[in-house]
Design a protein that fits this description.
heterodimer; A: 162 residues; alpha+beta; 5-stranded antiparallel beta sheet; 5 strands; globular; B: 581 residues; 8-stranded antiparallel barrel; 40% strand
C-alpha cells in the first residue's frame, strides 16, 4: 500500500515537472549584455562592439544585437554612449523591456550588424558549457529609437518644459 | 629465415612510425591547446640585409644577387633599401673583424654595428613611410563602405595602430661565414637571423596622419638557425621549373653564395610571425575563408584549423580541430571581399568563426614496403655461376621491395589539387633458395633495384584519399659475390641483366594521420621488358653480352622468360616536410 502510494506520488511529480518544463517560454532578454560603445555616427546612431551568447553562431549574433539595443536603451556597457533611459525610467520599464524583446518585429527595426554576414578574426569563442560567444559590430538607430520610446511614454522627451 | 623476417620488420616499422606520429600529433595539439592562436593576419614588412664575415666578403655581391632573385609574395611587404645603405652596413660589420660568429657571444656587436651604420634608421623610415602605413592600415580593414546610403564609418586608426605597424618591421640577415667544399659538394655556411623592430613607446591618441615620434628603437631576435646551403639547392617547387641560364653556368662556390641569399625566405614560411591567418566564413557551401591572392594564398596550400575556447574560469585558449587545403584561390585584389574555398583533409566539425593558420610544406617522402610477384627462372646464372645449373633451386616468384620516393606537389604548375610528381628508387629481395655452395665461391643475396619517375593524383574524402599512380623507369636483377681466382686471390664478381625499361600503375587508399603524415595500402601492376643484354664483371674485367649475339646463352638462362614485373601489394607511409633550407 505504502509502495503504491509512493509510486503514484513519483509519477504525479514527474508529470507536473515535465509539464511545467515544456510550457516555460524561452527568455527573450539578452543574455550577454557585454557591449563597448565604439562611436556615435552623426548623432543618429551608435556603433557598439557587442558580444552575444547562444547555442550557435546565429543565436549568438541575435543575442549580440539584443545586447547592443539593451545597452542603447538601458546602458551598462563600456564607452561614451549615453543610454536613453534614466534610473527611474529603468525601474518602471521591466514589463515594457520584456515585451519589447519578445517581439522580433519590434526590436529588429532599431539595430543591425555592420559585419555584412562576416565573422571577424578572434571574435568567436566556444564557452566551457558549449555555447558560442560571438562579437559583432552593431549599429543602433538611436534617433528612431528615442522618438518611438518617447511616443510610447517609456522615456521622457527632450523638449524644454518636459 | 632472413626473407621471412624482412616483411615482418617492414610492417613493424610502419606501425611504429604510425604510433609515433599519432603521439607526436597529440603532443603538438596539446602544446597548441595551451596557447591562443590568433586569426588576425597582420601584414609584416621584411627587409633582407645580407652580411658576411671578413673571410667571405668576396661573395657579398653574389648573396645580394640571390636576395634580388627572391620572388615577391603577397604574404609580406618586401621593403627595399638602397644598395649603398646595405653596403655601408656590410662595411661596418666587416670592420668588427669577427673571424667566426656566435649569436650569444656576438649579438651586441652585430646590433650595434647595424645601428651605427644608420641602416636601421633607413629600414624603419622606408618600411614606415606614410603611404605604406596608410596602405597597410587600409588593407587591414575587413569591411568597406559599399553604398552611398550606408553611413557606417570605419574606426580611424590610433597612434598605437601605427606604432604596431612599424614594429611589424622585420629584418632578415643571411650572414655568410664560409664557403666549404667537401666530397665534391660546395656549401655556403653561416647563420640566418631574424630580428623584429622593438619600439618602446605606446600611443592611444588618434593618428593625425604624420610620422609618430619614436622614443627608443631596438632589435629583438625572433628566430635564428645555423644554415648550410648547397650549390645545388632548389627553393620550393617553383625553382625546379624555372630556368636561369646565367645562374646555371655559375661556378659552385658562387652558386652556393647566391642560393644562401635566396634560401633565407624559406625560413619565414615556418615562423609563427609570418603565417597567413584567417577566419572560416562559411561551411554550408564548402569551406570558405576570407583570404586569397592578396595574402599570397596558393592552390593546395594547407591550413590548420583551430577553435578559440574559454576555460571554465574564462581563460582563452585554442583547440586544434583539423586540416584543410585550398582548392580555389579568390582574387581579392580585384574584389576586396572575395572568399577562397577549401576542401577537408582532416575533418573536425568546422564552423564559421574557426581560425586557420597556414601550414606550408615542401617535399613528400614516401616509404613503401611491397610484396611483388615476379618470375625469375631457376636457370638464371646457368653456365656463369654454376656450370650445370642456375643459381636458384626453383623458380623465384616473390620479391620483397623497399621503395623510397620523393614527390613534389605540382598543384600550382598543373592547376590541379593533389597532383604530385617525383622520383623513386627501390631495392627488392627475392624470396629464393640457393642451389648449394661451392668452396671458394661466395654468392650474395640477389637484388632487384631500380628507379622511376612518378606521377600521382589523390582524391580526398574525409581523411581518406584514393590515390592513382603511374611510374616509368628502369630496373635490373643483380647477382654479386666473391670468387677465388687461379692465384687463390679473392675477386669480386657481378652478373646483372642491364637496365630494363619498366612501367607501372597502381591504386591505393591513404589515411591522414596528421597534416604531415599519411598511411596507406596500395595495389598495382608493373611490367618490365625482358633483358636485351647482360653484364658480367669479374674483378676489373667487364663484358656485355647482347641477346642477338648470344642466343644459346639466352636460351640456357631462360632470359626471355625473366619477368621482373608483376602484381604488387604494399603499404606506404608519406611524410610531408616543411619548407627546407
Amino acid at each position: 500500500m505504502k509502495l503504491k502510494l509512493f509510486s503514484v506520488m513519483i509519477i504525479f511529480l514527474a508529470v507536473i515537472y515535465l509539464g511545467c518544463g515544456s510550457s516555460v517560454p524561452p527568455n527573450p532578454m539578452p543574455v550577454s549584455k557585454e557591449i563597448t560603445c565604439i562611436e556615435s555616427i552623426s548623432g543618429k546612431s551608435y556603433k557598439y562592439l557587442a558580444w552575444g551568447i547562444g547555442e550557435d553562431n546565429q543565436a549568438a549574433e541575435r543575442d549580440a544585437l539584443k545586447s547592443a539595443l539593451w545597452g542603447a536603451i538601458v546602458g551598462g556597457g563600456a564607452g561614451n554612449c549615453v543610454a536613453l533611459m534614466n534610473a527611474s525610467e529603468r525601474a518602471k520599464a521591466n514589463d515594457f523591456l520584456y515585451n519589447f524583446f519578445s517581439d522580433d518585429s519590434q526590436w529588429q527595426q532599431y539595430v543591425r550588424s555592420s559585419n555584412q554576414g562576416r565573422i571577424d578574426a578572434d571574435k568567436r569563442l566556444k564557452m566551457s558549457d558549449g555555447r558560442v560567444k560571438l562579437g559583432i559590430e552593431a549599429i543602433v538607430d538611436i534617433k528612431m529609437l528615442r522618438e518611438d520610446l518617447e511616443a510610447r511614454g517609456v522615456i521622457g522627451g527632450m523638449r524644454i518644459g518636459n | 629465415m632472413k626473407k621471412k623476417i624482412l616483411p615482418v620488420i617492414f610492417i613493424l616499422l610502419i606501425f611504429s612510425l604510425s604510433i609515433y606520429s599519432q603521439t607526436q600529433s597529440a603532443q603538438d595539439a596539446s602544446k597548441l591547446n595551451n596557447q591562443l592562436v590568433s586569426g588576425v593576419f597582420e601584414r609584416k614588412s621584411i627587409t633582407i640585409l645580407p652580411l658576411t664575415l671578413p673571410q667571405s666578403q668576396n661573395y657579398y655581391d653574389e648573396i645580394v644577387k640571390g636576395v634580388d632573385k627572391i620572388q615577391p609574395t603577397g604574404r609580406f611587404d618586401n621593403n627595399f633599401i638602397s644598395k649603398l645603405s646595405m653596403a655601408k652596413a656590410q662595411g661596418n660589420f666587416i670592420k668588427q673583424n669577427l673571424q667566426s660568429f656566435n649569436y650569444d657571444k656576438d649579438k651586441e656587436i652585430l646590433i650595434q654595428s647595424l645601428i651605427n651604420s644608420g641602416v636601421l634608421t633607413e629600414i624603419i623610415k622606408s618600411s614606415s613611410n606614410l603611404d605604406s602605413l596608410r596602405a597597410r592600415i587600409q588593407r587591414s580593414k575587413k569591411r568597406i563602405v559599399i553604398s552611398a546610403l550606408e553611413d557606417a564609418k570605419i574606426r580611424e586608426p590610433k597612434v598605437g595602430d601605427i606604432l604596431k605597424l612599424i614594429s611589424n618591421t622585420f629584418i632578415a640577415i643571411p650572414l655568410l661565414n664560409n664557403i666549404e667544399t667537401k666530397n665534391n659538394i660546395t656549401n655556403a655556411v653561416g647563420n640566418f637571423l631574424w630580428f623584429q623592430v622593438d619600439i618602446s613607446n605606446v600611443g592611444n591618441d588618434d593618428w593625425d596622419g604624420t610620422m609618430p615620434k619614436l622614443e627608443k628603437v631596438d632589435l629583438k631576435l625572433v628566430n635564428q638557425k645555423d644554415a648550410s646551403i648547397s650549390s645545388n639547392f632548389a627553393l620550393l617547387s617553383d625553382e625546379l621549373f624555372s630556368s636561369d641560364e646565367e645562374e646555371k653556368n655559375l661556378p659552385a662556390d658562387k652558386k652556393a653564395a647566391r642560393n644562401f641569399g635566396k634560401a633565407i625566405i624559406n625560413m619565414a614560411m615556418t615562423m609563427e610571425e609570418f603565417k597567413v591567418r584567417a577566419t572560416i566564413q562559411d561551411v554550408e557551401d564548402g569551406i570558405r575563408i576570407d583570404i586569397g591572392k592578396r595574402e599570397g594564398v596558393y592552390l593546395d596550400q594547407g591550413y590548420k584549423v583551430f577553435e578559440q575556447r574559454l576555460t571554465p574560469d574564462n581563460k582563452p585558449y585554442s583547440q586544434y580541430m583539423g586540416f584543410i587545403r585550398v582548392d580555389k584561390v579568390a582574387d581579392n585584389e580585384v574584389k576586396f571581399d572575395a572568399l577562397s574555398s577549401c576542401y577537408t583533409i582532416i575533418p573536425g566539425g568546422f564552423e564559421a568563426g574557426h581560425i586557420i593558420t597556414s601550414h606550408d610544406q615542401s617535399f613528400d617522402i614516401l616509404i613503401r614496403p611491397q610484396y611483388k610477384q615476379v618470375f625469375i627462372p631457376k636457370e638464371f646464372g646457368y653456365g656463369i655461376i654454376y656450370s650445370n645449373s642456375g643459381v636458384f633451386k626453383s623458380d623465384v616468384s616473390e620479391v620483397y621491395n623497399a621503395e623510397l620516393a620523393v614527390l613534389v606537389n605540382a598543384a600550382r604548375v598543373v592547376n590541379m589539387t593533389q597532383f604530385f610528381i617525383g622520383v623513386s628508387g627501390f631495392i627488392g629481395l627475392p624470396n629464393y633458395e640457393k642451389v648449394g655452395t661451392i668452396s671458394g665461391l661466395e654468392i650474395n643475396t640477389p637484388l632487384i633495384y631500380g628507379g622511376n619517375l612518378v606521377i600521382q593524383k589523390k582524391f580526398w574524402l574525409y581523411r581518406t584519399a584514393l590515390s592513382f599512380e603511374a611510374q616509368v623507369g628502369a630496373q635490373t636483377l643483380s647477382l654479386t659475390g666473391k670468387v677465388k681466382d687461379i692465384f687463390n686471390k679473392e675477386v669480386e664478381w657481378e652478373y646483372n641483366t642491364g637496365w630494363n625499361l619498366s612501367a607501372a600503375a597502381g591504386v591505393g587508399f591513404e589515411f591522414a594521420i596528421s597534416p604531415d603524415i599519411n598511411f596507406g595500402l596500395e595495389v598495382g601492376y608493373s611490367y618490365v621488358l625482358s633483358p636485351l643484354e647482360v653484364k658480367i664483371k669479374v674483378g676489373d674485367k667487364e663484358e656485355t653480352y647482347k641477346k642477338d649475339d648470344n642466343k644459346l646463352f639466352w636460351n640456357t638462362n631462360k632470359l626471355d622468360d625473366l619477368q621482373l614485373g608483376g602484381l604488387k601489394l604494399g603499404a606506404k607511409l608519406s611524410i610531408s616536410l616543411p619548407p627546407l633550407f
